[in-house]
């Protein structure tokens, strides 16, 4: 694979863009008559600051004011890590450990002290969620209880800013798509009669990751402690009739239906690619359902364009499956979802999501048909909404002839 010189050097969001994101959030706070926001969600913290971290029982919070000042609550063990990734945010309030590390102060008490120092107690405060999430044994009060005052809890204050991707975000997702496609190719080439789905999946992911790191070199900047930069997997047989079926014992057999998934992660951003495949000569039933799934996905491609609502896209796809294909009883989920830093993000291509689609949004298109006792049929692709329609970012072959394996 080639990496044109005009591409991002390195492959990550710049501190300037993070600064601009915080400024947009501050402007939104002003417009809403709010004085500050406490952000607890790890992905939202990373989006606003560039600080990617392993979320544990130790609360981390970013405080952003309407006057464009920022501060962070951190456990002491993250101080140097934060300074390395987010050097522009220098006002740090540190605590020893959770639940107190011998200091007798719960982290939410320390956060209250930070807000007091910033002159924000009693002011109009918002948060993405009302306190730190209960994970890894964490126990603590809601933010509103710790402060003794109302807090406007609204994830949309940050997440709505994430809906429309910047040029840099789109470039990271393009590169992620390239390597997700490549991981899928390695996996497809490795699948054969008698192959174990777990071993093939992990082997292909590791090989693709090796090639990705070699090709991108120092341009690639890891943003997580877990997982691989390039990933591919598949499930097989009647197990595919479950939209989120798990791996099972046994090996690939002639006549198996496979539903695959592959993605890359670059600069904290993901891609999405899924394919329905067949081992050996497909049966007439398989060909019929495969063709129906392909037609439904194409309807989704055509329906995704700016100015429409997510519900209108879903309505059009569902009407096609119901009225033209007569297969509405085989639908188990909506047509797709936005994504970027997370595998699923707001908004959703769903009958009850009336968000207006805008250029710069990125969606999966993945209407599925699930035939009990036979198989599931689902392709998923990554699409960028353009000024006039949409553009495929995942470019893996979709046609049946390219997805049949030797049997």
TrEMBL record:
Pfam families, sorted: Creatinase_N, Peptidase_M24
CDD domains from the UniProt entry: APP_MetAP
Gene3D superfamilies membership: Creatinase/methionine aminopeptidase superfamily (3.90.230.10), Creatinase/prolidase N-terminal domain (3.40.350.10)
UniProt domain Peptidase M24: residue ranges: 171-387
InterPro entries, alphabetized: Creatin/AminoP/Spt16_N, Creatinase/aminopeptidase-like, Creatinase_N, Pept_M24, Peptidase_M24B
Domain of life of the native organism: Bacteria
Domain Creatinase N-terminal residues, every copy: 21-164
UniProt-recorded name of the protein: Dipeptidase
């Amino acid at each position: 694979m080639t990496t044109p010189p005009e591409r991002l050097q390195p492959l990550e969001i710049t501190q300037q863009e993070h600064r601009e994101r915080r400024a947009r959030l501050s402007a939104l706070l002003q417009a809403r008559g709010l004085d500050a926001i406490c952000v607890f969600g790890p992905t939202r913290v990373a989006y606003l600051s560039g600080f990617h971290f392993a979320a544990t029982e130790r609360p981390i919070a970013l405080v952003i004011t309407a006057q464009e000042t920022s501060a962070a609550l951190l456990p002491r063990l993250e101080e140097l890590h934060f300074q390395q990734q987010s050097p522009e945010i220098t006002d740090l309030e540190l605590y020893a450990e959770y639940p107190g590390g011998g200091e007798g102060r719960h982290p939410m008490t320390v956060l209250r002290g930070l807000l007091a120092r910033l002159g924000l107690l009693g002011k109009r405060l918002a948060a993405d969620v009302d306190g730190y999430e209960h994970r890894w044994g964490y126990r603590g009060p809601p933010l509103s209880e710790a402060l003794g005052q109302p807090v406007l809890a609204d994830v949309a204050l940050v997440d709505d800013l994430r809906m429309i991707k910047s040029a840099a975000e789109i470039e990271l997702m393009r590169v992620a798509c390239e390597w997700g496609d490549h991981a899928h190719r390695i996996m497809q080439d490795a699948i054969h009669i008698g192959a174990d789905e777990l071993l093939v999946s992990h082997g292909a992911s590791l090989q693709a990751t090796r090639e990705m790191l070699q090709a991108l070199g120092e341009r690639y900047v890891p943003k997580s402690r877990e997982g691989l930069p390039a990933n591919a997997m598949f499930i097989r047989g009647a197990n595919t009739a479950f939209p989120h079926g798990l791996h099972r014992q046994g090996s690939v057999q002639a006549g198996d239906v496979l539903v695959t998934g592959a993605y890359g992660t670059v600069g904290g951003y993901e891609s999405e690619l899924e394919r329905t495949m067949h081992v050996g000569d497909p049966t007439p039933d398989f060909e019929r359902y495969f063709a129906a799934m392909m037609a439904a996905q194409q309807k989704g491609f055509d329906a995704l364009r700016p100015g429409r609502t997510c519900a209108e896209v879903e309505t059009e796809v569902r009407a096609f499956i119901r009225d033209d294909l007569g297969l509405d009883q085989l639908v188990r989920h909506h047509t797709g979802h936005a994504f970027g830093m997370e595998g699923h993000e707001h908004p959703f291509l769903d009958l009850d999501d009336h968000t207006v689609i805008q250029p710069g949004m990125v969606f999966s298109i993945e209407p599925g048909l699930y035939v009990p006792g036979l198989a599931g049929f689902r392709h998923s692709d990554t699409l960028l909404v353009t000024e006039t329609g949409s553009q495929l970012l995942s470019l893996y072959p979709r046609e049946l002839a390219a997805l049949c394996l030797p049997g």
